From TrEMBL, chain A:
CDD domains: MM_CoA_mut_B12_BD (cd02071), MMCE (cd07249). It comes from Lentibacillus persicus. GO terms for molecular function: cobalamin binding; lactoylglutathione lyase activity; metal ion binding; methylmalonyl-CoA epimerase activity. Pfam families: B12-binding, Glyoxalase_4. Belongs to the methylmalonyl-CoA epimerase family. Its cofactor is adenosylcob(III)alamin. This is Methylmalonyl-CoA epimerase. Gene3D superfamilies: 2,3-Dihydroxybiphenyl 1,2-Dioxygenase, domain 1, Cobalamin-binding domain. Coiled coil: none annotated.
TrEMBL record, chain B:
NCBIfam families: acid_CoA_mut_N. Pfam families: MM_CoA_mutase. InterPro entries: Cbl-dep_enz_cat, MeMalonylCoA_mutase_a/b_cat, MMCoA_mutase_a_cat. Residues 33-546 form the Methylmalonyl-CoA mutase alpha/beta chain catalytic domain. The keyword Ribonucleoprotein does not apply. One of its GO terms (molecular function) is cobalamin binding. Keywords: Isomerase. This is Methylmalonyl-CoA mutase, N-terminal domain.
């Protein structure tokens, strides 16, 4: 594997380089070759350095409030020099409301105060070496619907809609009985609580019957969870656990997705295909 | 023994208390706790030799317990909030608001182009005009900045380094226009170039000509502006860049010694300039270490000045300092928690005997502070001053086993660093070799790793995270300001007497080539005819060259 080359640059007049220096050192510790430009670099100088040093990624740091002017100038200069394929990430004191504009201008990601150097290193690795990159989930594995009793709920799905019941399974650890109904490449999963302390019972008590979660088919589950954790995505399960059909599953906290509970599930090769 | 007159003893202290009380009576006839217990002016052990040698009495050598005999019983520290953004006119409004709110001194933040000697219309200034402070191009802007602020009553601190001479001259010129004689002007210029190379980054010229400008200022002000603090030797930025408390004190005092050496080399008498040296430290989170740090810094400096440099005037021995709470300790997460951090840091500065204090606003990890946040920050100081009771006796933590032991240990460790820097050949040489820079980077990186490994807990960042983050209101600098400021500098250039400017700049260039000349009178002349910061600095850039880093 070739060593990733990174240019860390300080555009503008800002002299706060603690963050830039710490990041440069951290990326070196992650095995990358890091070139630090020093202070007061113009967008032209930064792009020149990036091309000369043949870097894989540029990191811009600004704490003086000039990011909205200077970061887009770097992007523009990259285009002028036919080097727009070099991805750019940014960091510093950057208010949340400025981030959408910078992303629109082509900056890949903004790491603000409190971001971990681990998350940045991981992000750069995945950006540069896409063979290691974790792919987006491929499909909706199933939609989970909480019901009081599967027997009462089933006729709507089997008789009215005419879906095929694949089977009923009990997951002791979750205190839940599940029924799977196949629909295209996905399924509908009916969930009935077996005990009072079952999460499904808690859901029913709080919200009544209805859609409980959406499950996404996701390979490399453990890596994916590690990445999400590093990026600060709130997780209910940081480690995969056993789910129905011999699958491995983990839940993402609903606050990560506007109140929607997502399950990530990885099925053993060949099953549920 | 000749030293006896300077030896701290109770008799000397009591005599100076009486003298101080004539000038600055105490705030109350009697200080008491809520339970009506009387609070004494000072608590101390029965006199013994180690006590007097290591601690002494407040206002007495070696000043471990403070530099004034009655400390805050007479006068609180100066509450000095650093402010400035956008245009001179807007900043002037903020200043007048802060003075109305009971602030007792002004502190000017300049934008980066001003700090690095570029006019607002310079290509290098793009995107930076008015962002982190006020944009000053010519005397015209300084006149707007200080409009209706009585310079004979208000002291002004200016965070300006490489072009400190230019901004100081503009201040003097405005004072003159207000009819205030130079000898009545009070204030401070930061003027500490060494820490710019070490940590802050707003350098222009290489170390040697920079040191010349600084000694030129010392000399000029000693003769003509005697009440102005000509330098604020700053550990603040060294700490922000990631140093430890010990490194902060060590590198700052090493820089201080380099300035003293440069001034002595320029032929100045130590007691002529040393009383105008001021310091600027950081207040971070480790509460008792910070208190000990300030006490140790005072004792070390007193000993350096008296024993090493043989200064005779006790004013030369006193380390007077400004404190700002630690910007890098603030978190963008759960910003209201920062109010608590700032309170503890401010309290450490007060218990450490600071002369003036800036408390940071809770939203500074996110953007420049809003007016509301800046008000809470000032109120924090007022609550400490008026409600906590810690200002009612001098050095209340003196005598704590832990604090005294920390004070001693910090002194030891600082002295080790000072010896090391001395071996390298002094602070200027150490800076040129990047010694301090490397030491700080090493500590900064270790800190980051400790936080990421959860070995160091930052509430709200790597522990006790909140489910919901509130979006605070943030201050936005008007993006049209840059264009307005560019128009304004162009207008100022078109309205001035261009021949006078050209002549002033030619003279300045000639004098810059003569290393024995004092440049300040020539810079003063140039600013009075409305030469700009950029024009003056460009002449000096041509002659002195530019520093480009280690």
């Amino acid at each position: 594997m070739e060593q990733i080359r990174v240019l860390i640059a300080k555009p503008g007049l800002d002299g706060h380089d603690r963050g830039a220096l710490v990041i440069a050192q951290a990326l070196r510790d992650h095995g990358m070759e890091v070139i630090y430009t020093g202070l007061r670099q113009s967008p032209v100088q930064i792009v020149q350095a990036a091309i000369q040093e043949d870097v894989d990624v540029i990191g811009l740091s600004s704490l003086s409030g000039a990011h909205n002017t200077l970061f887009p100038k770097v992007m523009e200069e990259l285009k002028n020099k036919n080097a727009a394929d070099i991805p750019v990430v940014g960091g510093g004191v950057i208010p949340a409301e400025d981030i959408p504009y910078l992303l629109k201008e082509g900056v890949r990601k903004i790491f603000t105060s409190g971001s971990s150097t681990e998350a940045l290193a991981l992000y750069i690795k995945q950006l540069i070496q896409p063979e290691d990159q974790i792919k987006a989930p491929e499909k909706i594995a199933h939609i989970g619907i909480a019901v009081k009793e599967i027997d009462n709920a089933l006729p709507f799905y089997t008789d009215t809609l005419g879906l095929t019941l694949e089977g009923v399974e009990t997951v002791e650890s979750e205190g839940v009985k599940t029924a799977f109904l196949k629909i295209g490449e996905s399924r509908i999963e009916l969930l009935e609580p077996l005990r009072d302390d079952s999460p499904i019972q808690q859901f029913l008590t709080k919200k009544g019957e209805g859609i409980h979660h959406i499950a996404l088919e996701a390979d490399n589950l453990q890596d994916r969870l590690n990445t999400m954790k590093m990026e600060g995505v709130p997780l209910i399960n940081e480690e995969p656990k056993a789910g129905a059909h011999d699958s491995q599953v983990a839940f993402v906290h609903p606050k990560a997705a506007n109140g929607v509970l997502f399950e990530l599930c990885q099925h053993p090769e060949g099953s549920e295909q | 023994m000749s030293d006896n007159t300077f030896q701290s003893n109770k008799g000397n202290w009591e005599a100076s208390v009486n003298k101080t009380l004539d000038r600055f009576p105490e705030r109350k006839d009697q200080f008491t706790t809520t339970s009506d217990i009387e609070v004494n002016r000072l608590y101390h052990p029965d006199e013994d030799e180690t006590y007097e040698e290591k601690l002494g009495y407040p206002g007495e050598y070696p000043y471990t317990r403070g530099i004034q005999p009655t400390m805050y019983r007479s006068r609180f520290w100066t509450m000095r909030q650093y402010a400035g953004f956008g245009s001179a006119k807007e900043t002037n409004e903020r200043f007048r608001y802060l003075l109305d709110q009971g602030q007792t001194g002004l502190s000017v933040a300049f934008d980066l182009p001003t700090q690095i000697g570029y006019d607002s219309d310079d290509v290098m200034a793009e995107g930076e005009v008015g962002k982190v402070g006020v944009a000053i191009d010519s005397l015209h802007d300084m006149e707007l900045l200080l409009d209706q602020i009585p310079l004979d009553k208000v002291s002004t601190s200016m965070t300006i380094n490489a072009p400190a001479s230019v901004l100081l001259c503009m201040y003097l010129a405005v004072g003159e226009k207000q009819g205030v004689p130079l000898e009545k002007l009070t204030g401070t210029i930061q003027n500490d170039i060494l820490k710019e190379y070490i940590a802050r980054g707003t350098y222009i010229f290489p170390p040697k000509p920079s040191m010349r400008l600084i000694t030129n200022i010392f000399e000029f002000c000693h003769e003509q502006v005697p009440k102005f603090n000509t330098i604020s030797i700053s550990g603040y930025h060294i700490r922000e860049a990631g140093s430890t408390a010990v490194q902060e004190v060590a590198f700052t005092l090493a820089d201080g010694m380099a300035y003293v050496d440069a001034a002595l080399e320029a032929g100045l008498d130590i007691d002529a300039f040393a009383p105008r040296l001021a310091f600027f430290f950081n207040a971070h989170n480790n509460f008792l270490e910070e208190v000990a740090k300030f006490r140790a810094a005072r004792r070390i400096w007193a000993r350096i000045m008296k024993e090493h440099y043989q200064a005779k005037n006790p004013k030369s021995w006193k380390l007077r300092f400004h404190t700002q709470t630690g910007g890098s300790t603030l978190t963008a997460q759960q910003p209201d928690n920062n109010v608590v951090r700032v309170t503890m840091q401010a309290l450490a500065a007060v218990l450490g005997g600071t002369q003036s204090l800036h408390t940071n606003s809770r939203d500074e990890a996110l953007s420049l502070p809003t007016e509301e946040s800046a008000r809470i920050a000032l109120r924090t100081q007022q609550i400490i001053a008026h409600e906590s009771g810690v200002a009612d006796t001098a050095d209340p933590l003196g005598g704590s086993y832990y604090v005294e032991s920390l004070t001693d240990r910090i002194e030891e460790e600082v002295n080790k660093y000072l010896d090391q820097i001395n071996d390298i050949g002094g602070a200027v040489k150490a800076v040129e070799e990047g010694y301090m820079q490397r030491e700080i980077q090493r500590t900064a990186y270790e800190t980051q790793k400790n936080i990421e490994n959860d070995e160091e807990i930052i509430v709200g960042l790597n522990a006790f995270k909140s489910e919901e983050e509130i979006e605070p209101d943030l201050l936005k600098v008007d993006e049209t300001l840059e264009a307005e400021q560019i128009n304004s500098v162009e207008k100022a250039r078109s309205e001035r007497d261009q021949d006078a400017v050209d002549n002033a700049l030619v003279t300045l260039r000639k004098k810059a080539q003569d290393s024995s000349a004092n440049l300040i009178p020539h810079i003063l002349h140039a600013v009075k005819v409305y030469a700009t910061v950029g024009e003056i600095c460009n002449v000096l850039r041509d002659e002195f060259g530019e520093y480009t880093g280690v």
